[in-house]
Amino acid sequence: MNQQYSQEIIEGQRKDWNRVAGGWEKWDRFFDEQMAFLNHRLVADARLRSGMQVLDLGSGTGYPALLGARTVGSSGSVTGLDLAEQMLAVARRKATALELANVTFRTGDATTLPFEANSFDAVTSRFCLMFLPEIPKATAEIARVLRPGGWVAAAVWSSPDKNPSIGLSMEAIKKVVELPPPDPTAPGIFRLAKPGDLVGMMQQDGLIDVTEQEFLAEWSYASADEYYTSLMEIAAPIQNLMAKLSAPQIQEVRRLITQAVTQYQRGNRITFPLAVRMVAARKPL
Ligand SMILES: C[S@@+](CC[C@H](N)C(=O)[O-])C[C@H]1O[C@@H](n2cnc3c(N)ncnc32)[C@H](O)[C@@H]1O
Questions:
Q1: pTM flag (> 0.85)
Q2: Strand boundaries in 179-283, DSSP class E
Q3: Cα–Cα distance between 18 and 236 in angstroms, integer?
Q4: Dihedral of the alpha carbons of 119, 10, 238, 172, in degrees to the nearest 10
Q5: How far, in Å, is the centroid of ligand 1 from the Cα of 276?
Q6: N or C: lower Cβ tally within 10 Å for the chain?
Q7: Where are the domains of the chain?
Q8: pLDDT digits (tens, 9 = 90+) for 2-59
Q9: With a 6 A CB cut-off, is 60 part of the ligand 1 pocket?
Q10: What CA–CA distance (Å, rounded) separates 232 from 20?
Q11: d(CA 274, CA 160)
């Protein structure tokens, strides 16, 4: 891949996620309440236990790094790495509030890890790998920094039809402006949605005991307004699309989204299904 293109993507990601860091801090409690099960799943799939040294890639505001730190305890440590300094600043504030002294956050790119080979007992990553321009480079780096026998566990979004909380907003935007047909190989929310994609990359790197599961669950919002506002404040890729619209077009997208979410009204909440691809693998002994 063209290195300049790759660097441009990475720079774009850094800017995007720094821009939405305030939104992530604002909605942090909501995510914790609605999606903590994914952190627990990653901690289990990576087989974290007391005393381990763990790397979390694309930690953002600390998921699942903070749960990892609690799990490995004071004799272990977690290093959370992310491109976006502003996201990490939120993660650090949370670590301080939780009195977790065994987690450190540092900026860096998941495709060129600033660590020696065999430095970590386990690697975790939630909703990061699909944003990388060169995912196989990152999986090769994961295989390099893992100690023999160590596990990697990653969560990435499955397809948009199974994730209407993301898919329906994109559909609404498409009704208002013409978007270029998505390039399935371009970095983005659904880049690793296809079964076997991430698994294949891990196998290429010599990782073994690779498993993949499409993990189905639900999450819910108090109202269509809460859904719309949070989406616009945290979803950097959706914000980028919305930035191309005029004020009347934004109003129309909002109307279409608010209308579309009514089909997910259950009782007094909006409840969406979600589907996450959970991939785990181990470095041979
Ligand atoms: C959707 S957020 C997920 C954050 C967190 N893991 C979570 O689940 O809440 C994606 C994160 O991946 C980070 N990211 C994107 N590309 C990256 C790269 N090349 N190296 C490291 N982090 C990256 C972004 O900065 C952002 O914080």
A1: yes
A2: 208-221, 265-266, 269-282
A3: 9
A4: -110
A5: 16
A6: C
A7: 3-159+183-221+274-282
A8: 889 899 999 999 999 999 999 999 999 998 999 999 999 999 999 999 999 999 999 9
A9: yes
A10: 9
A11: 9
